[in-house]
Amino acid sequence: MKRVAVTGAAGHVGGAVVRALLPSGVDVRVLVHADRRAIEGLPVEVHEGDIRDPDVVARLVADRDLVIHLAAVISLEARDEALMRAINVDAVRVVTDACLAAGVRLVHTSSIHAFSALPVDQPVDETRGPAEANAPAYDRSKAAGEVIVRDAIARGLDAVIVNPTAVIGPYDFRPSRMGEVMLDLYHRRLAGLVAGGFDWVDVRDVATSVIAAGERGRRGESYLLPGHWHSVVELATKIEALTGKRRPRFVSPMWLARAAAPFAVGWARLRHTRPLFTPTSLVALRNHKAISGERARQELGHDPRPLDATLEDTFAWFAEHGMLDAT
After folding, report:
1. Banded model confidence at residue 262, pLDDT cuts 50, 70, 90
2. Residue 255 in domain
3. What is the model's pTM?
4. How many domains does the chain have?
5. pLDDT tens, position by position, 139-172
6. Domain range for residue 15?
7. Which of 38, 15, 66 is nearest to 211 (CA)?
8. Based on CB atoms within 10 Å of each CB, which residue in 192, 200, 299, 307 is the most buried?
9. CATH number at residue 21
10. Does residue 326 sit within a domain?
11. Chain center to CA of 5
12. Is position 178 within any domain?
C-alpha cells in the first residue's frame, strides 16, 4: 500500500488518517471541498472538488492502490436529510463506480448508526441488522450507503466497511459537534447536561484501524470500531477534573430533554447556531450502549485508549491551537 487516496481529508477523521499514513512513506492524495485546515502544511497531493462529480473522483482514484472514503455529512437535524442523502448515499455510488473501474481497493467509512438500535438491551456486533425505516435521517443514510457498497462488492469490488462510534480527539479543527460541546464545557457556556451517554472512541485509534482495514481487512466484511461507553455526566466530570472548569450541576432527565428539544432547535435556528441537543441526538444518547469490537481487535488490532488519555490530549491540542480562553 504505497499510493492512497483519501476523501473527506479535511474532516476530523480525515486529518487523523492522513497524519497516520505519512510516517510510513505512503504517497497520499486527498480530496477536499473547500476547508483545508486539517491538512494544511502536510506533504500531500491536494485535489479540490465535489465528491458527487464522477470526473473529480475518477482523477482522484487513478493509479492508487487504496481509496479510503471518509467524506460524509453528519447532522442531527432532519432538515439536512436531502444533503445527507446526496453525500452519504449518492456520492458513495460515485466512489464505488470509480473504484470498480480503476480496480482499486476501497475502505468505506460508515458509522455505528448504520446498525439498528434494537434491541437496545443486547450488545451490537457486525451481525446486527441495518437501521430501520423510522430511524433518524443520518442513520438511514449511512445504512443506505452500505447497501451501495455491498452491491458493488457483489459486482467485483474489493471493499471493506468500518463503523466507528462517536469520534473525539485531537486534530478537531472545525471543530466537530462533540468538540464544540467539550469547548462549551470548558468555557462554561452550558446551563445543564442531559442524562444518557454514548460510546466514545479516539480519532487516532479510528485512523489506525481504518488503515489496518485497508491493509488486512477481509473483502466484504464490516468492522465495528468502538471505544468506551461513558455517560455525558461522566464525560463532563472528567473534563472538570482535567481542566478545573466546574461542570453544570443540573442534569435534565431524558423525558424533559425530549420535551424541550424542539424548542432548543428552534431557538438555535433563530440565533443561526447549532442546537445543543436535538430529538435525533437524544435518540443516540439512549442507544448503542454495549458495542462489540472483538472482530476489529482480532483482525485489525483495534485497541482503543482510555477516555482520560483522549481528553488530556484533546485539551492540550485545543490549547496549542488557541481554542481555550486564558480565563
Report:
1. low
2. no
3. 0.93
4. 1
5. 999 999 999 999 999 999 999 999 999 999 999 9
6. 3-173+199-228+289-305
7. 66
8. 200
9. 3.40.50.720
10. no
11. 18
12. no
